[in-house]
Amino acid sequence: MTSESDERWLEHALLLARRAQAEGEVPVGAVVVREGDILGEGWNRPVAQHDPTAHAEIVALRAAAASLGNYRLVGCDLYVTLEPCLMCAGAMIHARINRLVFGAFDPRAGAAGSIVDAFSLPQLNHRVRVCGGVRQAECGDLLRGFFRARR
């Protein structure tokens, strides 16, 4: 179930995704929010940082952890324009993210149900609530436009 605030935070993530696009990166943006306050934000930076882990979600999680002075992000929600990959899903679980809200589904690497659902593995000791498809068309159009322009 989505709310007006989910729409608003996804809009903020879209702004960050456009920043990634302007820098020549795949346009994905992410923001970590707790009680209506932004604790961390990020956009894809693997090319610029020469870092395969510099996905938007990881950048946002690192910023939020630094802001709190704690790697455990209890009570925080993460908003991202694209369904997270397995690496990012694992990081969210370890960080104890409360809720993940994402835009476009990723049929090639999505780990929130598209190819695997990392968040529903019964062996894990933390559950992240997941809501996908928020502003899906807008998020997907941004990605499709980026890749179309590169061909």
Shape from CA axes?
globular
Number of helices: 5
Uncertain regions: pLDDT < 50 for 5+ in a row? none
Helix percentage range: 40-55%
Our estimate of the beta-strand percent is 15-25%
Summarize the biggest pleated sheet: 5 strands, mixed
Radius of gyration from the alpha-carbon trace, in angstroms: 14 Å
Q: Strand sequence of the main sheet, in spatial order?
A: 2-1-3-4-5
Q: Average pLDDT across residues? A: 97
Per DSSP E runs of 2 or more residues, the count of β-strands stands at 5
Helix/strand order: HEEHHEHEEH
Distance between the termini: 36 Å
Which structural class is indicated by helix and strand composition? Answer: alpha/beta
Summary tags:
globular, 40% helix, 151 residues, five-stranded mixed β-sheet, alpha/beta, 19% strand
Explain how this protein is built.
There is one protein chain. This protein has five helices and five strands, in the order αββααβαββα. The protein has helices at 4-22, 46-49, 56-68, 86-95, 136-150, and strands at 29-34, 37-43, 77-82, 99-104, 129-132. β3 (77-82), α4 (86-95) and β4 (99-104) form a beta-alpha-beta unit. The radius of gyration is 14 Å and the shape is globular.
Summarize the structure.
Helices cover 40% and strands 19% of the residues. With 151 residues, the protein is an alpha/beta fold.
SSE map:
Blueprint: H1 4-22, E1 29-34, E2 37-43, H2 46-49, H3 56-68, E3 77-82, H4 86-95, E4 99-104, E5 129-132, H5 136-150
Parallel strand pairs: 3-4, 4-5
Antiparallel strand pairs: 1-2, 1-3
